[in-house]
């Protein structure tokens, strides 16, 4: 009897364990698409979560979100801020907050639980938190903008002058000094929470009691400073201590002030470096104190003697003041900070991930190229700064020059006239010294160091003990990975990835050396390829704010935003660039499910649409930059401009319908039809089956964008493929506007083999050609000239992920709710694998191919479904997890299977 009881107990415990494992789980919980974010605006507050389950075909049937004022309240079930109760819904992304008003500068705690298809609940997610930002000017508690010295509005040079001002120009100014500012304060009670809100223009590094606050580089992000200024939020509770404390801040120029002593793309200034600070201290007894920036702060010039975002940085270590950012430092020689001219922009929280140093590169080769001069080769072109370790005497100077290329004599070569950009370090001479620039960076593979010991007899010169490159990029999480059996394709993926991450900063730059500007074309042409590699939701929300700030009174959204420099002609108004103002919001809806951004930007989008309509001639846009950097420049400008006009107006019609503006939706739908008719009348020759000149771009954009009338679609597609094969000999000719649509028109319409042949070569300009010539990041032009680190041509990643790996979403799907898993085992490929982090969780695929079998492994997130397309014939045998499948469709040598969430191994024999 006793043994039977034990047996029953064991069976019961096992069943409980199996039930627990079989239940749905919340494995990630996000607020505003981030983990434990700070600086949240409650008007934008939304929650998302990802789930896992060992069962197949699981969807969420309900959820419950709760919020508490403390972690203790949350874990004890006292949801004193918000309780959604049980909401019957399958929505697990973009769940917007609908509770009572939240307080500013406050940390809240939340969690979520869900119910599965069988209405069985999960456990609560782990406790999460978010911290609200500062909502109104009054919430800044009279914090003032302060600095070391002021520049009145009369000294402003805005917009910037393109390149340098002419000698004698009265507006020429010297490099603004980079100051140190400090403030001491005393803690007399026990601290429960300390929240720091800070902005420094152009950039800042902050510290408390001698230790850095955060690890961001070039904070805050670049904006139109007359419209928007970003601030950052930090929880520094653990960095405070009883008694005396000290805060220190170092300021740099960034894009806020650019003098012309060295290389510049543009010269101008919004003002001198300045700072605003609010430290909210909440004690355990519930009372609060505030430390604010005001004239009681002390200020002095820093050891940074020169810094611009374009020209580089100089540092004199002899000017360091040890302990300047700690309590008790003797600052009598410092002067009181001054109240400075107020910046014009509105303070808003930075919602994107910060820029950080996320990689470190070690030199692969060192070459002596002259007296006391060494060139370090790091083997990889990336955005970055040098970090040097050196021993020497006080007053000795090292000069470091980063570059992408070398001259024939081995010295560094600045392309496109980007010179001089350099870093200078003056030693203090007290042993081992380490230094890196703080407010500038460059595209760097090589670093030339001058003034160092290269021979034993030069004993008096400094000795470099180590030199590394720190690679800076936006800290957005990785969103995917790809690999296949073709070594060239893997190298192309790496080549493109380095260009993408080198140009993901606080906005998307065109390159890390010559311009560092946010040309809208890069994000317009590359957003999907970028999206498969990095989670850019928050970045694109920031980019949209920049465009709204840059919009002109007449509705034009310029080619660059922020518009630090006002260019002329097509360099200020090119529709292929400007339509980003519409298509970014469409992207955030399609790929992330965000409808709120559509509502926020609707006014901006419609004003720009009206601008384009007024600029059109007979519903055609016949101006702009065209298919920039194509080979041969044979595509008429009107083809690319009008194609983007049609695409953006069609998207605007869909967005108008989405937010209930039915009249607008109808108007824009009709306008799109009119544009399509005008486009075909102007550019299509039905006898020759050609658009315009018949270039790859002219043929591919109408196919991919839906401009071809259905009657002629097959004719145009076949003509494109025939021309590629017979006339172009599988050579690539499209530029950065058209290349994306060339790729899509081939792999989405049954011609991936043609695309494979075009890509799998290195003998003509293209991806392989760049690698053969030694490129380590994607180059600006197909022939390998100009910038050696530019992401604009990286569209091939779309094929790698959506085509070869087979990870995409069905046409009417939003946020990858309905996956389209359609691998393309083309050419000599024998295997491929891909991973992509969708809003619902990780999508994973892996396939192998032999002469008699195709094996495809997939993982589909909970709360989604997938249509899987497998290469098969009517006599093929298909197995799912070892069992034969009989319920599927066969279309054009493809088997279609409908699958719910889960992990599957599919075989075709």
TrEMBL record:
Report which reactions are catalysed by this protein: Hydrolysis of terminal non-reducing alpha-L-rhamnose residues in alpha-L-rhamnosides
Q: What is its EC number?
A: 3.2.1.40
Q: Which InterPro entries match?
A: 6-hairpin_glycosidase_sf, 6hp_glycosidase-like_sf, Alpha_rhamnosid, Bac_rhamnosid6H, Bac_rhamnosid_C, Bac_rhamnosid_N, Ig-like_fold, Rhamnosid_concanavalin
Q: Which residues form the Alpha-L-rhamnosidase concanavalin-like domain?
A: 369-458
Signal peptide coordinates: 1-22
Superkingdom assignment: Bacteria
Q: Where is the Alpha-L-rhamnosidase six-hairpin glycosidase domain?
A: 479-803
A Pfam family for this UniProt protein?
Bac_rhamnosid6H
Keywords on record: Hydrolase, Signal
Q: What is this protein called?
A: alpha-L-rhamnosidase
**Lineage, highest ranks first:** Bacteria, Pseudomonadati, Bacteroidota, Cytophagia, Cytophagales
